[in-house]
Amino acid sequence: MRVMIAEDSVLLREGLSRLLVENGIEVAAICIDAEDLLRRVRGFLPDVAIVDIRLPPTYNDEGLQAALEIRANHPSVGVLVLSQYVEVGLAMKLLADSAEGAGYLLKDRISDVKEFISAVQRVAEGGSAIDPIIVSTLLSKRRSSDPMAPLTPREREVLELMAEGQSNQGIANKLVISLRAVEKYVSSIFSKLDLPSGTTESRRVLAVLLYLHV
Amino acid sequence: MATKAADAMGTETLIRDPPGAATLLLIAIAGAGAAGVLVLLAFDSDHLEDPAVRAILGIWITIPYIGAGLLAWWRRPDSRFGLLMIFAGFGIFLSVFSWANSNALYTVGQAFDFLPAALLIHLTLAFPSGRLERPPEQLVVVAAYIVGGGFVIARMMLGGVDPPTMLQVLSSPDAALIVERVILLGLSLISLAGIVVLAVRRRERGRPLRRWVALLIDSFALVLLMIALLFLAGTFGWPAFEAIRRMTFLIIGAAPIAFLIGLLQARLARSAVGDLVVELQQDPTPDHVGSALARALRDPSLTLAFWLPEFGRYVDLDGNAVETSDGDGRASTPIDRDGAHVAVLLHDADLHDEPELLAAVTAAAGMALDNARLQAELRARVDELRGSRARILEAGQQERQRLERNLHDGAQQRLIALSLDLGLLEEGSDFDSEARARLGRARGEIAASLAELRDVSRGLHPAVVSGHGLAVALESLAARAPVPVHLVVTVDGRMPEAIEIAAYYVVAESLANVAKHANASSATVEVRRTDGQAMIEVIDDGIGGADTEMGSGLRGLADRVEALDGRLRMWSPLGGGTRLKAEIPCE
Fold first, then answer.
1. What single string gives the DSSP state of each residue in B50-81?
2. Nearest to A64 among B458, B468, B521 (CB)
3. What is the pLDDT of residue B11?
4. CB distance A19–B476 less than 8 Å?
5. Which of B1, B123, B392, B520 is the least crowded, having the fewest Cβ atoms under 10 Å away?
6. Tens digit of pLDDT for each residue in B7-33?
């Protein structure tokens, strides 16, 4: 797997690349700004581009714009956006019409090495990695009627992990239950929430997020 | 005229005190006595035809002068004209002694027979100051007194009057007749010369701009003309002599009435000062002050010039330097406030005949201009304060932004890197489970610190607003709000950052209040940009009754909004929810 990094902080640039290399991931390029990243991505398509959302020169939305551009022009390249704060609005912007090969994580998450590497792998394989804060914010959002009401606590846990982009296997590992049990919960959730069943793992991320976002 | 104006008017402290009431009363009684004596003389006379008509005419040409003179002396003590009129009135009265049967009185009357003509010429040329200022005027008047006084005595001595007076020393009718002709012709010519003097004066100064002054001068000129006509008729024995005489008397008596009308108008004008004050208060802009003053003073030629202390000169409304030299019928009256020049009125010199009016109007104008200046100063100060408030807020905002960036690029990055190091260590196999657990706890502590730092950063500056715009930032606010929030943002593109940040704080603070106080079940946040204005409105359906006096949080918001020239309003009726609305100009 080959990865490109765009990060302006030396400390994190080096930490990230060490982290990836130590876990057998090839770092094809380390860029210090969005323009550099876009040029390199055009030259050589990596499996994943890890992008700091706040990049020079203005430190406003250069990172996000680069991520959106890569997603639009190079659908085969997974994009993992890292940020020191996560915003529901930005998540929805990034995922606009697909959660395929897209990730949006709090920067802090890189210190949980296993989790982070698994997120990078998911994004590389066309899956998703959505920060738990986004999911919990959406879940805690006040509504006139609680859409989660019909779910059991266990189903709720499964839904949260699903929204983060975990695969059924990943959910099974996390909750220490069988894959079949996970599949049962998932189909129960989909029928209770009246969501279209039988979608792929990455499609269901967006479906759940949109369901929660309303 | 200018010199006279300065003498007569000068500064207000030089205005003479009006005569005492006792003096005026005494003169009035003397006037009434004179009228009585005049009637008695007329009806008692053994040589007067039509005594009733002559008595009425006699009163008609004396009493108005005494009355108008009294009034003028009282109202314009600084002008001699009033005294001169009183003097003329009594002088004319003396001439009626020629009606007396007593030889002594008759002689006195005859001696003063032509004096009224000289007095009227004097009066005419001495208007309005009561002084004869120029040699031609003085010459005419001296000539009038010599002819109307001295020559008359000579004629009496030559026995030119019938019946003879006590002054007769010889009887030389031919010589007396020549003297009489000289008197009559002389006085007519002197009257005509007086008209010429008046005409020259008018041509030099232009037609008086103020109506009553013109009326008075015209009526005096007419008096002179009638005197000339009367004496010519006398000289050449025109048959219409009697008719001309009555007409002349009518006009002589009417002149003081024109004078009284002028005084009355001046009084009316003074009563208009009240209206002027009200008018100036409503619109104290300098050009309006000028036109209002022109109306109040009935001087369309009046202009206003303003004192520029830094240049030491007067300028008009367009900033052009203005000369304030008096002369040629023009005069200037400074408007001072608290010992400092404010402006100057440039006006017709005749205005100095109404010093009280001028003083009152000048005071009103001074007040209005002072008001305008204070208002301008206040406005400037408010602008200055608004500017400094905006600068303070802006500086604070920049400082917070800088701190947020420092945290983001410094402490937060270091902690993340440190946490990553610990994570990598944890992954290594060199540690036992005990050590691994401790590393995990340390990582947890760092994660908690980072979460706290994130909150601090967010509180310092909503970086997401700068980075990604108001709509995205509000979406997060709405998602975190304690009640369902209906969010409507209809803004195309980005607004200026300062406005977006203010709007963000308005919504954040309002939603925080909804959480704390409103007991609401839902809220609506609407941000609109229309007609060069950004409108931010937060409405909840809570219990209302919020403190609209603006607590410190709201006060801070209001400061933010007002610093951007906007305004913040809040409605919170008990039981009716709370509505907070900010409007900020946004081109």
1. SHHHHHHHHHHHHHHHHHHHHHHHHH-TT-TH
2. B468
3. 38
4. no
5. B392
6. 434 333 344 677 888 999 999 999 999
